[in-house]
Design a protein that fits this description.
Low-confidence stretches: 5-21, 384-401
CATH architecture: Distorted Sandwich
CATH topology: Beta-galactosidase, Chain A, domain 5
Number of strands: 22
Strand content: 25-35%
Shape: globular
Mean pLDDT: 90
CATH class: Mainly Beta
Number of helices: 3
Bound molecules: copper (II) ion
Structural class: mainly beta
Largest sheet: 9 strands, antiparallel
Amino acid sequence: MNICKRLMLVAILVLVGMSTAQAGGSPTCVFPETKLSWPAINPIWEMCWLDPGDSVGPRGSGMELRNVYWNGQLVMRRAHAPMLFAEYNGGQGGDCYRDWKDEPTPTLAAAVVQNQLGSIPNGGEPAITSCDRSNSPTTSYGICPFSLTIPGGYNCTAGLAIEDLGDHVRLTAQYRADWYMYASRFEFYADGRMMPSFGFGNRNGTFNSVTHWHTNYWRFEFDIDGQGNNSVSINGVDQTTEFTDLRDATGGPGGTQTTWEVRNPVTGNGYRLAPGANDYLVGTNESGRNFHTVDFMATQAHAGEYGDDPNYDLFDCTMDQSALVNGESIANNNQAIYYRVSVRDATANSWPNGCSGGSCIPQDSMICKKAGPTLYPIGPWNEFIFANGFDIFVPGANRFR
Ligand SMILES: [Cu+2]
């Protein structure tokens, strides 16, 4: 190697070193946290996970992930789902409830993926939740094993299923609030994408007769590169004050969908949250009763604040965004962003209100419904992975069967 080539190599190494200044980080997990490194050798993603029973917040926050690192760089301090609601059609005299998120219920999974990273056995099946199983409008399959028998070491596991699926790792937890069984999933791809999804299942046919909605708000505490200096933008335009927002399929640049970004303005690294196709199926406030009226919130993060109400009870159904979005700065600090998905479980002849016969939406209340966004890495840390920049960005792509 001549001196010129040697200098060029040094320059390249310096540039790489600069752009990955925070690389090499790794979470320290403290009981009851458990560390996940995927792949086990030369990990791309590392994090601490907690099952719903150990999650923070009043009555928990479902599957909780802490100190999530991609290629040795901090992405999020915490990801969880602290606000969950079940609302019954007011036109049928229905009430509305705030559900709990700290009562785990088993998932059907291969023994090798139960609470540890594992690969699905040859000829085996990925982990199955109530929602994965539910494909009939009126039949419920109960709790695990959901009237299924899968040979080869499959059984009902408390805690998480953690599956190495080749180009990504998938974490699945399921929890129960009376009749309902909620499946919280998170997929982490080698290319940096993160895909949280929520499945709304059931364990019996109770309330088959009343149309109702389920609403989940995720909460993501980003700290890109771990310097406490992030910004939040709408369609790439930085915002300085806490805000609420709504999904808009054509509200982004060039008529694309509205997206939101969290970014470290110093390193340029960030994430873009793009709604999934199913997220659009049930808009805010479909019932008209003003319980859940925003899709997105950007708030300044505060220690110990995991939602709109630290002391709620079962009947506190309204998500009070004014308790979270109240004029604080979101410039150059740490934020918690919240994102809503809802599903409607319709019964025959009850929705829309006033319908009759064929004008009513046919019963689909026991059929599984899933929704969730994709979070895409943006900025320099992405360019080291993708030569084709934003070609990967496919607004509204439907990844659900
Ligand atoms: Cu339901």
